[in-house]
Amino acid sequence: MTNAVWNANLSVILQFLLYCERRGIVEGVIGLRNSVQSYNILLLEANPYPVHRLASKIVEPDEVVIPDDASFEAVLAAREKLVDNPVLRRRDTLLTVVLDEGLRRSEAARLPIDVVPSAQEVSALRSAAKASGIMRPVPIRVQGAKTGVGRVVDFSLSLVERLRVYIDEDRPFLGPEKAERSIFVSSRTGRALNPQSITNQYFRARSNAIYTARADGVSEWEIRDMMRVHPHVHRHRCITDSMTSKLEHGLDPLHAMLDVMNSSGITLETMLGYLHLGQSRRKSVLMKQGLVDQLKDDIVLERLKALDESKLRMISRKRRSRK
After folding, report:
1. CATH architecture, domain 69-199
2. Summary mean pLDDT of the chain
3. Are β-strands 41-43 and 138-143 bridged in parallel, bridged antiparallel, or unpaired?
4. Is the sign of the CA dihedral 200, 203, 207, 208 positive or negative?
5. d(CA 236, CA 295)
6. Tyr recombinase domain spans which residues (predicted)?
7. 3 state DSSP class of 317
8. What is the pLDDT, as a whole number, of residue 63?
9. What angle (nearest 5°) sits at the alpha carbon of residue 322, between those of residues 318 and 323?
10. How far is it, in rounded angstroms, from Cα 310 to Cα 239?
């Protein structure tokens, strides 16, 4: 049992004991530290849930480990083999590319047709790119799955072109309901894909990939790496790669975080949890830009944690107003 699971179960027990303490059924058993009353169990926090973290020598990292590219590609290759229908295969492949843009499963599954430029508009964008020699990204409006607040995500022109072709040529063969506006629909129901069905498909592909890998004598370490593959890893990789790229191009770490937060629709707290940049890699990038000297690996992030989110948002608004 992990610390997280143990603490979740412990919280239920503590809630019951706290209930008894507050109603006078027991006395001096559990409560917050104070100068008047002493308790056998001292809580760190009592509202809304009691907190009494387990002391353990085992360190469980908060960061989700991103699987190696080879493990990820092995699962994606197995996923392609799950379906024979070429239209469904193209749908699933395109959905994977959309997930690579940092969208959550539900955001990708319910991405509406209306956000994709028309065929004429896409053609005009391609002509402009050829004339200028610059391939500009296409802003796509995404409805946030958690907050309901919309945000703009930059899709590459080539991805937008693929989406347009799929909408016009492949999607009709899946029998979408007349009122259904989602790009990715189920061939069985004609409605938007269920986000859980995406997860289930990845899990089946992962099982097949692991079975094949074991038959080929792949190491147990590589097998464990494959077991980390799931749809949300696309989002983890996108945020990580975006942050790394901005740092490597000399953008200030604070502004780099703001840019990624805005495009990904996440809070500062979540952003810090999403950072999967390797310790040595992150430090080396910052040292190259002269932003840190011989500092400990996490000193920059520790400083960022000290900034409250309202200040970050204020800086973000000032930056946007200057554009």
Report:
1. Orthogonal Bundle (1.10)
2. 78
3. unpaired
4. positive
5. 26
6. 65-287
7. helix
8. 44
9. 120
10. 21
Give the separation between CA 87 and CA 90, rounded to whole angstroms: 5
- Give the global pTM: 0.66
pLDDT of residue 294: 44
- Rounded-to-integer distance, Cα 152 and Cα 132, Å: 24
Burial of 227 (0-12, 13-18, 19+ CB in 10 A): middle
And the tokens for 297?
Answer: 């690996």
Mean pLDDT of 101-129: 94
Q: CA nearest 136: which of 148, 124, 145, 144?
A: 124
Strands (E), 47-205: 138-143, 150-155
Phi then psi dihedrals of residue 32, to 5 deg: -80, 145
Task: Map out the domains of the chain as residue ranges.
Answer: 1-60, 69-199, 233-322
Contact 257, 125 (CB under 8 A): no
Pair type for strands 138-143 and 150-155: antiparallel
53 vs 45: CA distance, rounded Å? 10
Question: What number of other Cβ atoms are within 10 A of residue 107's Cβ?
Answer: 22
The predicted pLDDT at position 295 comes to: 46
- What mean pLDDT is predicted for residues 244-254? 72
pLDDT at 140 over 90: yes
**CB-count exposure of residue 50 (10 Å: 0-12, 13-18, 19+):** buried
The whole-angstrom separation of Cα 74 and Cα 59 is 30
Identify which of 263, 278, 296 has the alpha carbon closest to the alpha carbon of residue 63. 278
For 319, phi and psi rounded to 5 degrees?
-65, -40
Give 27's DSSP letter: S
